[in-house]
Amino acid sequence: MEANNGTSFNNQKFTISAVNDVEQQTSMELEAKDDFNYSKRSQWLRAAVLGSNDGLVSTASLMMGIGAVKQDIKAMILTGFAGLVAGACSMAIGEFVSVHSQLAIELAQIKIDKQRVGAMVPLPAASFIREYKVRLGVVIGAVSLALSVFGWLGAVLGKAPTVRSAVRVLVGEWLPMALTFGLTKLIGSSAL
Question: What is the pTM of this model?
């Protein structure tokens, strides 16, 4: 059913037409907000959560790898800092090369900022602990907590099951840390 003023009541959509001149006409549709499509959030949500996870896990994996062969706190912190800088630079250059519009540049900056946020979690966790095994445990604990929060946050924002998402992120991101630690320990102990 359509009224003379251009308003339509079909499918909860309202069309308002305004004629500027004979050749140009603009219309605006107002939709009901009952059926919000959460997949529209997926791009920024993916960039935010996974960008943070990338920085978190890559930095923690580097620190765990060095921690596997060297018990020195300075070496572990310097490795984490180098990972943070290298990761941020790598992300920045990779995004800069691939961008073709202002929107892509803005999204790249958001991704870089999120990577920095994630990379900052293991660094303070290890910075003040002298005891080697305690330091490794604190890094694993801090990273595990942050990964759980990132997984939960992504699930809440995406309207997905929270526990499943948090566990999936946590277990999935433990693997690179464990592999890095194990392989570096193996290679480091063979005295190359």
Answer: 0.56
